[in-house]
Automatic annotation (TrEMBL):
Name of the protein described by the UniProt record: Epoxide hydrolase
All residue ranges annotated as the Epoxide hydrolase N-terminal domain in the record: 3-112
Keyword Hydrolase appears in the UniProt entry: yes
UniProtKB keywords: Aromatic hydrocarbons catabolism, Hydrolase
Length: 384
């Protein structure tokens, strides 16, 4: 399978059209006197849109992104975009363990960059160069520059694509996997499907088995499941519409960059460990880099495919490879009991609840994530 270099190049006319749309944005009035209570705060959105239209330098952001080792390959009949960081390690050191890092929604490869750099070049951040990893950061199918496969978008299906990318395309015999959200599901399926070649799996969004027939939930597990259901009742509106009417909402977001930004930022604020202040975790330029990538590629609608196809996902089988959980500090996982993870992972070797870093932990706490991955994968580098 051929791998080719890739560069991001948004045409000038796309940027001109984007700016024109932003300057013509019509804003709604807030539905609640409490800021953010009814979704993205209109005043906050107004400020972001103004900066996006006249202040944000996309060309500088694009140039910075193009300093990264972007690659493209066709896998399972569809293009896959990924960034391939080669380990910076001492000459003569053993070959590094490769890692594949998988993002979720409404995210992108940008989420993984800060942690990936620390893993591939630890010496640049005061670490031991002997602990460097090769790091592969793919864009999920239908996200940005990766095309949708012909088959339905399931976590298992993506795992099959990723395994082909890592082994057939890039030639790795053995590798580790990390992810959260959708990426966490893909990571688990990698461990379940390919135990001979996947050294271990590490997730931040913990799992809950849907099969309690053999062993009913414990009181602690049921307390968590009830709390999760209560949280979802106020949060899952976005999910319901993307699961049932993705093309309807996509039509609006494909036509309005302000609407697209509102849809994305709402979740970046809710799910980050930011205490309600999204700027604590995400500077404006990073948020608008992500939004511009979605806008320029027209991929917000295809990013919904994994929601529409979600019923096609099968129950996760037991995962026997070494596993680790660094639990995300976000409302959905408050009070999550370790025993739920142990229902799926038969060899849970690392369990950590740092209470720092939310849904986008690799961006929010890159030093923490890099340290957690080194701790878990370090002993697995040369394990048979």
């Amino acid at each position: 399978m051929t791998v080719t270099p890739f560069r991001i190049a948004v045409p000038d006319d796309v940027l001109s059209d984007l700016r024109a749309r932003l300057t013509r944005t019509r804003f709604t009035t807030a539905s609640d006197s409490a800021h953010w209570a009814a979704g993205t705060d209109p005043d906050h959105l107004r400020d972001l849109v103004a900066y996006w239209a006249d202040g944000f330098d996309w060309r500088a952001a694009e140039a910075a992104l193009n300093e990264l080792p972007h690659q493209m390959a066709e896998v399972a009949g569809a293009p896959v975009h990924f960034i391939h960081f080669r380990a910076r390690r001492p000459e003569g050191a053993p070959a590094p363990l490769p890692l594949v890092l998988t993002h979720g929604w409404p995210s992108s490869f940008v989420e993984m960059l800060r942690a990936a750099r620390r893993l591939a070049d630890p010496a640049a951040y005061g670490g031991d160069p002997a602990e460097a990893f090769d790091v592969v950061v793919p864009s999920l199918p239908g996200f940005l520059y990766s095309g949708l496969p012909t088959a339905p978008f399931t976590r298992r299906g993506v795992a099959e694509i990723w395994h082909s990318l890592m082994t057939e395309t890039l030639g790795y015999d053995r590798y580790g996997a990390f992810g959260g959200d959708i990426g966490g599901g893909v990571t688990q399926w990698l461990g379940a499907l390919y135990p001979e070649q996947v050294a271990g799996v590490h997730i931040t969004s913990a799992v809950a088995s849907a099969d309690f027939e053999k062993e009913p939930p414990t009181p602690a597990e049921q307390t968590y499941l009830d709390a999760l259901a209560a949280y979802d009742s106020g949060d899952q509106g976005y999910s319901e519409i993307m699961c049932t009417r993705p093309d309807t909402i996509a039509a609006a977001l494909m036509d309005s960059p302000a609407g697209l930004l509102a849809w994305i930022v709402d979740k970046y604020r809710d799910w980050s460990d930011c205490d309600g202040d999204v700027a604590r975790r995400w500077d404006r330029d990073t948020l608008l880099t992500v939004a511009t990538l979605y806008w320029a590629t027209g991929s917000i609608g295809s990013s919904f495919r994994q929601y529409y196809d979600y019923p096609l996902n099968k129950r996760m089988p037991d995962i026997t490879v070494p596993a680790a959980v660094t639990l995300s500090h976000e409302p959905a996982f408050a009070g999550y009991p370790k025993s739920l993870a142990e229902r799926v992972f038969t060899d849970l070797r690392h369990w950590s609840t740092p209470r720092r870093g939310g849904h986008f932990m690799a961006h929010e706490e890159p030093d923490q994530v890099a340290a957690e991955l080194r701790t878990f994968f370090g002993p697995l580098r040369n394990a048979s």
